[in-house]
Amino acid sequence: MTEACTGPVATEIAKRLRASLAPTRLDVINDSDRHRGHAGHDGSGESHFTVVIESPSFTGQGRLARQRAVNAALGDLMDGRVHALAIKATAPGE
Length: 94
Prior knowledge:
This protein is α+β, with helices and mostly antiparallel strands. It has helices at residues 7-21, 63-74; strands at residues 25-30, 48-54, 84-90. It has a domain at 26-85.
């Protein structure tokens, strides 16, 4: 499994996704610096992320179901600590 995590929020995102979705690939990419000066950039350095995740649990699911599964796994992190999240979710072999 690949992970690119830095900082406490990115680490928590990875922890929750590993526990909930058992990914075979997981990249948590902090995009916050690219959003400096935009709405939602809170100065913490951890407000905007991209998650690239591959999980067997996504087999047979559509894009929306996969995104809902990721958001459900992250729970309360999406209620303020994370302003924006781009999700690239695939099943193995896709």
